[in-house]
Design goal:
CATH class of the largest domain in chain A: Mainly Alpha
Largest interface: A-B, 32 and 32 residues
Structural class of chain A: mainly alpha
Organism (chains A, B): Micromonospora matsumotoense
Strand content of chain A: under 5%
Number of domains of chain A: 2
Number of strands of chain A: 0
Keywords (chains A, B): DNA-binding, Transcription, Transcription regulation
CATH architecture of the largest domain in chain A: Orthogonal Bundle
Largest sheet of chain A: none
Oligomer: homodimer
Order of helices and strands of chain A: HHHHHHHHH
Protein name (chains A, B): Transcriptional regulator, TetR family
Radius of gyration of chain A: 19 Å
Mean pLDDT of chain A: 91
CATH superfamily of the largest domain in chain A: Tetracycline Repressor, domain 2
GO molecular function, one term (chains A, B): DNA-binding transcription factor activity
Number of helices of chain A: 9
Shape of chain A: elongated
Distance between the termini of chain A: 44 Å
DNA sequence: GGAATATACGGAACGATGTTCCGTTTGCCA
DNA sequence: TGGCAAACGGAACATCGTTCCGTATATTCC
């Protein structure tokens, strides 16, 4: 986690100093651009913010998904790690599930275009899709299992599908639309009656 | 509804024959293009299919939303009109609601990109948004009211928000994602327990 | 310290797409 | 039939993602 000059197995020769510097600059620039214009911010804008050419972006982050993942990696990880904690501190598994999904919704709601990108079937976003799924599905499945075992929800619920649905509900904004409430309805629909 | 040469109040002079012909051709071409490539089909493709220049498209349908509305107008109307029928023939209001929403989902699911466009907050799609809302919200509200009155669902449900959520759930496709099931969960969440 | 070399950089260039604009064509009416 | 307003076509412009290659520079080796 802390190491930075080791690749997978075969030793990666270590990148040039300017390359590492640019990568960090680019990450900061992208974060700023995403905040200002959403995750669809034009490549040229990000490059300009970082003071580099567009080629440099593509060299470091071949697809937009790679850049998005790099920018939000820590927040996704934090979200995933919150699941067991919530399960331990909440009254019931269903309460923990609800709280955790709220966390996820809060995360998505503050990133314009992220939910849309997440649910795009474009091949370019497959990496993004995969990253989120790899990290968040196990966390969600854990909560789902606990709630199912406690007899609170129907046992056949698929974590991947649920997260995808939540992502969809968070995509798009409208005057009288509250994604949180709709997600709440969805989670309520999970409950056994 | 059947008249075609009257504007609002001041008499519209009636369009030229070639203009009327092109409009019909364009509608057919757009329908075909939407079917083949989704509602985001390139303007040039539609123009080519119709054998007209791109300028002609913009003259008849200033925004893509106008074109989409024109293409799907009849289906939307049919969907709206199905609501009272379903209410009369279904066992319970909630059953009618479920059936009607299934209808809506089926409609959306067969139009690639429509749900996405519907929930886009882009100003260009405001017309589309408005059209769907104007026609479908009353139909849905009717069913919602009936179900609420029968004590089947929570009475504070907003039709516009619900439809928007259903649209969102239908946007985006993934290997293990079934929009119908998720919509079912959402509607189940409406029920009083 | 001073080349040699691989690495990284910058930005021009290309293709796709939406949108506008204006010279040309054509239906319509007198 | 002549004239004009309506409509047309498609070139032209703007934006954006993506690629590519000549140039610059960090690193290494002597």
């Amino acid at each position: 986690m802390a190491g930075s000059d080791r690749g997978s197995g075969t030793s990666t020769p270590r990148k040039r100093a300017d390359a590492r510097r640019n990568e960090a600059t680019l990450l900061a620039a992208a974060a700023a651009a995403f905040l200002a214009a959403g995750v669809d911010a034009p490549v040229r804008d990000i490059a300009a913010r970082a003071g580099v050419g567009v080629g440099t972006i593509y060299r470091h982050f071949p697809t937009r998904a790679d850049l998005i993942v790099a920018v939000y990696r820590h927040q996704v990880q934090a979200c995933a790690e919150a699941a067991p904690t919530l399960l331990a501190t909440s009254g019931t598994p269903h309460a923990a599930l609800t709280a955790w999904i709220d966390l996820f919704v809060d995360f998505l709601a503050t990133k314009h275009g992220l939910a849309e990108a997440l649910n795009s079937d474009s091949a370019a976003f497959e990496t993004l899709h995969g990253y989120f799924l790899d990290h968040l599905v196990p966390a969600c499945a854990h909560l789902l299992d606990a709630a199912a075992e406690a007899g609170e929800i129907r046992p056949d619920t698929n974590a991947e599908e649920l997260l995808f649905a939540v992502g969809n509900l968070c995509a798009g904004r409208a005057p009288h639309y509250d994604a949180r409430r709709m997600v709440g309805l969805l989670v309520a629909g999970l409950r056994l009656r």
